[in-house]
Amino acid sequence: MYIYVDSFHCFKILKDMVTFFSLFTIYPFILPFLSLTVILYLSYVIVVQLQQRPRDVAGPPTYPIIGCLIPFYKNRYRLLDWYTHLLSKSPTQTIVIDRLGARRTIVTANPYNVEYMLKTNFDNFPKGKPFNEILGDFLGNGIFDVDGEMWYKQRKMVSHEFTARSLRDYVVNALKEEVENKLLPILELMEAENRAFNFQDLLRRLAFDVVCKVSLGFDPCCINESLSFSPLLDAFERASQISAQRGAAPIFFVWKVKRWLNIGSEKQLKLAIDQIHSSINDIIRERKIKIKDENQKETNKDLLSRMILAENFDEEEVRDMVISFIMAGRDTTSAAMTWFFYLLSLHPEIENELVSKELRFIETETLTKYEILKEMNFLKSCLCETMRLYPPVAWDSKHAISDDILPDGTRIKAGNRVTYFPYGMGRMENLWGKDRFEFKPRRWMEESGEEGTEQISILYKFPVFQAGPRVCLGKELAFIQMKYVVASILKRFQIRPACSDPPVFLPLLTAHMAGGFKVFVHKNKYN
């Protein structure tokens, strides 16, 4: 067998390694220690690869010691499509990624494997220490970054709050205030001036304002006519981006050394996290004073006040939980809505059907009623179809506690990363048919049971909200927010791209449209 190694990408890897090792001219004292570490690590890699890599496992070309580092590095800017291609060629829709500098990773688009991970054998597939290493500096001990008893404790408290009607009403009222007083006037201004603007940025600002109101009872006022710079929003974006880059790094110890030396991107991450912690700690302390001084019933509407009143968590736990809530609600809904409006612009016949048959006759005043929002079934189908093609979270990983075997026969070793892959799942022919690349919201009417309720099978071939014990508690609130915002816009306006270039789907902690979404706003014919 001949082994072909792309010389260009070998050169790129060597160039990055030279840049990394040049650090030792500045910090020579760490070189002996690191050299010994690398030798021991390479020895360990060889032994593990010989033990773990069955000959019949699907995946990219894999070589001794370096594993699939070369093809991984070559495809590092198109991992989503590369993984999707490999999965589509795999008989089980599962592949194994072995590469130098990273733990063995199993990537799957098989719904039976997803169900096994997220539900059947849930306890064997926690987030795990490797996940916490990457996101722990940012998310701390918040609900999205912890396992075991700490997770159960937070989940129990949060699940009670998220099912409360009072929180749902609070969310709708916050949406009404932000959309009617801020979003729609800005769109009116952009339409009147015929000005192109970044619609993705506007939606992200809206989502950030709403989630801060709901989580903190605090309005950062990011959405305004000038769309001025917001230090807190910028800190969240920088922390999110750099944390995501940790997970995508071809060689993981590079970012760890940079963190230890407090240089480069890791220094920027620390500064962003310090700013986030400082801002939220100030809000927590002010809220505690307010709760003591005022009637508790008037101050317990937002999640922060509810957690303080519950008295089950210390200040650091409350801070970390709030950061998790903000991260969950900040980019996910705005990303889904950005791609939704892009897809509608490509399919005006679907937009016309949605507006003329479902939204046109709904009075604006009734949008605040939960029952009205819940009945928008075609709008929900359009949103689900959008997230099938462009999921806000492109992949999610767990780490096996003990050896296991997935339903498709893939063997898992303790410590392996097991990743389910919503982006690839939305592109599997065996799951969605030959028209899997097409935007067809009607397919969701066929996937629904009585009264629009989801069949159990759809949870595991469309796991954008996870499933099982860790299913997203904010799922219904997310749909409420998206339906309210989309309906409010489409009843008045059409959103059209400012250029014809196809956008690029960029996965970070949450995916977004690379470079933003430049649009023009036009009044629709029903307005």
UniProtKB/TrEMBL annotation:
The organism's superkingdom is given as Eukaryota
Q: What molecular function terms (GO) are annotated for this protein?
A: heme binding; iron ion binding; monooxygenase activity; oxidoreductase activity, acting on paired donors, with incorporation or reduction of molecular oxygen
Which cofactors does this protein require?
A: heme
UniProt keywords (A-Z) are: Heme, Iron, Metal-binding, Oxidoreductase
Q: Where are the transmembrane segments?
A: none
Q: Which Pfam families match?
A: p450 (PF00067)
Keyword Aminoacyl-tRNA synthetase found: no
PANTHER family hit by this protein: CYTOCHROME P450
Q: Which family does it belong to?
A: Belongs to the cytochrome P450 family.
Name listed for the protein in its UniProt record: Cytochrome P450 94B3-like
Q: Which organism is it from?
A: Nicotiana tabacum
